[in-house]
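Researcher: Re-running this chain for the archive, since the previous output was lost when a drive failed. Same request as before.
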Amino acid sequence: MGTVNLENKTILITGVAGFIGSNLVKKIYQETPSAKVIGIDNINTYYDVTLKESRLNELAKYPGFNFIKGNIADKSLVMELFEKNKPTVVVNLAAQAGVRYSITNPDAYLESNLIGFFNILEACRQCDTLEHLVYASSSSVYGSNKKNPQSIDDKTDNPVSLYAASKKSNELMAHAYSKLYNIPSTGLRFFTVYGPAGRPDMAYFGFASKLVKGETIKLFNYGNCKRDFTYIDDVVEGVIRVMKISPDKKNGEDGLPIPPYAIYNIGNQKPENLQDFVQILCEELIQVDVLPKNYDLENHKELVPMQPGDVSVTYADIDTLERDFGYKPSTSLRTGLRKFAEWYAEFYK
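Model: Regenerated structure tokens:
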């Protein structure tokens, strides 16, 4: 595996106003202040824009950070970005997120996740400074696989949502470009990322907002869902480690490149039952006075059937991540939800 030095290098991050993107920028500047980070985001209205703007405001304090408002589906903009900035590492986090939204708004997924990613690959192909492309895939590519934990060697040919299909397509497109043009690329299958200033469309955030309003929360699959919740700081630490080590470029016996291509799971390796999860979330929200001490959770829960596009269990096998990077996420659910609750109390006070 090749080492990628980030000192004084240009790093391009797409989807930089997003949850993972904004936290990644902070972590890069904590570790490598000399880096120059170019961030692009179209600030779409899929969820509350004020949250994206508050994340960007925090990034404005880093002198090396440069933000461009734009859409990666705009090919000429992407090409111009690469030509002008000559990035060493590209981290593609821009995507239309969410499984449920892909059922009502499929067009958004094709634009961002397929056309947008294709534009990034095309620009990478023509960029002679590029040493590593890292891109977001998703645990959703495992579909309704019954095997647990989910391993990168498992079959991923049965997506149950368009979102999952678009993420699997990213992996296939990256593989083709790695093979044809010798582009070192690493895909990361993220498992339910959560934490402060996260995505309001995610269950934990939506639950908090509903509980605060005294509304009833719906637990799908009658509460028998399990999710491998992965805390944001753990995810970002994983991404940084991956950025710095690229798959090797080497030729096969036929003299052609063996694709410098890798995929990893980033998860906590500890699926949590939805019922337990909600219980801990409620306790932590009570702890920070967002909910009253005598809050009756039982009266605010409704057990309902599974939704289309959803899967009942996500459970990451992260042995290869640990083997290649000496790393595995370790934040406990209670610790992570406590930090989220503290942030929530402060942000929405």
